[in-house]
């Protein structure tokens, strides 16, 4: 079966290419980047995860963004690991620290690394100049644990940036806008916890802005993809169900949108991710009706990309290909994707080849 | 400590007062009613839960709203209980049927009863004439498992009705409007799963409509109360955190808004519910700043009502007092509340007494 073609230069961005934002941190992940064509350049918004440097095996130095003299900064908290383990804390997942909770059994109380968003630019879409300083960083209580998994959508002459705002209050979706990737404005949370993987349509459909979004309920239901509508991009409603986690196959664990649907002559092309219950993340594709995007014209029965090469199967969290950005250029689809929750890679496919795979 | 005063007529509505909507069902709960003063009457929207009559102990007849000839109707599914138990199904919770799920261990696949909303009218606020037919019933896939826990808010000359739309897709919030409690219009889901206990403010504050809402995240965070804003009541954004589940005391399990905040000279009075991790549901009160309702002026340290009397401690799901409706009349606060997830009761308090309890 035809699928996305990895470029030979992969991985195109690794953690060694990214300068830490401060002297006492190290970059442990540079992944899940938003992408857009801006003039003659490709711009990525890289999710850069940093942790504090600490060689003491008994101490875990976890970061939290907190206001210091009124300005949010990454602050270091030194945890005594043996002491906390004795108190019932759990350190098994390298991404989080969990503490005993009367309500929830174990509840996440720290992340081991925190993410900000970094701008990178390229003339060829493969070799990137990565800025040395963060572009978007936490500045609110909703981002105390970082800004993750951005998406970029060009709409009405503005670049809309949505990303996952993570904090002890939950995992929600923040909206920001920029015109120049130098300054930006935040517009608050457009979706309350738990909701992420938001993908805006790049134009109004039937007079409404549209956003795929992926709420994750505590009780009844699975983390499914929904479609919301808006008049102003700030306020969203009329949520409609789009696609659910499946009972069998490669979509049994989690699903979520990749990046903004792309308008083609045959309909909206929408790239998404799906994981099975073993957390193996793959990519798939939908083709949706132009005037009624809830109507699925075609869907990839099998993944169009799955973690197979070593840079996808081994790493910070192996067995993951995950996209937050891509675009169509001259009938070639470019899909930027994070690999193993650590680095960035690129895969492409001719639109006609993808249509053939989708049987349309 | 001063608290709400139960009226001697309690419970004011029981399941025996409510006629089933069809000959083959029985009413098992008539509770969690919205309330409003309409002219010289008190109108309640009662949540009426019905189940199919079936005396065969080996068969559980569960209901589902499904389209039959294009019209949503309550359809009966006969489950062979011993057979399903052998297959790993769980019938321990009388409210739900759970089936084995590779993703979730056990997942709810049926509710044992389904709810619709019924209008009741009263001249004295205590004795109600209950309509014989449902007012609002499921008509969408988002309500396949019922319409629950309504709230009523009079705003701009219209009664806004929001209620919990329950289906296998999750627990979301539906918006409807009525002018006469005879006809109504549904406006779609304003919040995706999981989100309930939505309480609209009865007027714009600083130029925006406001809604407390209670999302419940699957992962990080607890089911907390948030405040969203809107320009049109249909599309909501700028979600801000208001109040969280607490680590100790009577608010450790779940919290959520009761009904629309009431404007008083001292600020917004906002009645809410909280449960501990044993699912004992109590009521509490906030006093909020008039111009910045996220600012808590005062809060009841202890419940203003807790399940104590037999009609509150014993029933379909005992140990629950839960309000979805109330109003202020002549400086007396009327709080209609569901008891033991089965019947309706009423408690009142003079506003000055409640202020005294709140220390304001």
Automatic annotation (TrEMBL), chains A, B:
Keywords: Glycosidase, Glycosyltransferase, Hydrolase, Transferase
Pfam families on file: Glyco_hydro_130 (PF04041)
Record Gene3D superfamilies: Glycosyl hydrolase domain, family 43 (2.115.10.20)
SUPFAM superfamilies on file: Arabinanase/levansucrase/invertase
Keyword Glycosyltransferase: yes
InterPro entries, per database record: Glyco_hydro_beta-prop_sf (IPR023296), Mannoside_phosphorylase (IPR007184)
Molecular-function annotations in GO: glycosyltransferase activity; hydrolase activity, acting on glycosyl bonds
Transferase among keywords: yes
Protein family: Belongs to the glycosyl hydrolase 130 family.
Protein name: Glycosidase
Lineage: Bacteria, Bacillati, Bacillota, Culicoidibacteria, Culicoidibacterales
């Amino acid at each position: 079966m035809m699928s996305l073609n990895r470029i030979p230069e992969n991985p195109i961005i690794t953690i060694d290419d990214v300068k830490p934002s401060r002297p006492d941190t190290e970059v442990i992940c540079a992944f899940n980047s938003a992408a857009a064509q801006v003039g003659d350049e490709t711009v990525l918004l890289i999710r850069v995860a940093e942790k504090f440097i600490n060689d003491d095996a008994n101490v875990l130095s976890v970061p939290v963004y907190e206001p210091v003299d009124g300005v949010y900064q990454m602050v270091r908290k030194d945890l005594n690991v043996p002491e906390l383990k004795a108190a019932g804390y759990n350190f098994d997942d390298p991404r989080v620290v969990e503490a005993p909770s009367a309500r929830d059994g174990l509840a996440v109380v720290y992340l081991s690394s925190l993410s900000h968003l970094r701008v990178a630019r390229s003339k060829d879409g493969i070799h990137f100049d990565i800025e040395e300083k963060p572009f978007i960083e936490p500045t609110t209580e909703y981002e105390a644990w970082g800004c993750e998994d951005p998406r970029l959508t060009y709409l009405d002459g503005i670049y809309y940036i949505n990303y996952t705002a993570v904090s002890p209050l939950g995992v929600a979706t923040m909206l920001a806008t920029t015109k120049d990737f130098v300054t930006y404005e935040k517009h608050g949370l457009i979706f309350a916890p738990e909701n992420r993987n938001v993908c805006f349509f790049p134009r109004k459909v039937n007079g409404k802005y549209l956003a795929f979004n992926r709420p994750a309920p505590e009780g009844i239901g699975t983390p499914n993809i929904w479609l919301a509508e808006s008049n102003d991009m700030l306020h969203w409603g009329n949520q409609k169900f789009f696609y659910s986690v499946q009972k069998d196959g490669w979509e049994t664990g989690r699903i979520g949108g990749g990046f903004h649907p792309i308008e083609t002559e045959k309909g909206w092309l929408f790239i998404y991710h799906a994981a099975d219950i073993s957390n193996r993340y793959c990519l798939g594709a939908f083709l949706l009706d132009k005037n009624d995007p809830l109507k699925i014209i075609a869907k990839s029965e099998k993944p169009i990309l799955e973690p197979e090469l070593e840079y996808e199967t081994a790493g910070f969290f192996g067995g993951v290909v995950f996209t937050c950005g891509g675009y169509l250029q001259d009938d070639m689809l470019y899909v930027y994707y994070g690999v193993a929750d650590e680095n960035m890679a690129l895969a492409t496919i001719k639109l006609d080849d993808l249509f053939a795979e989708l049987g349309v």
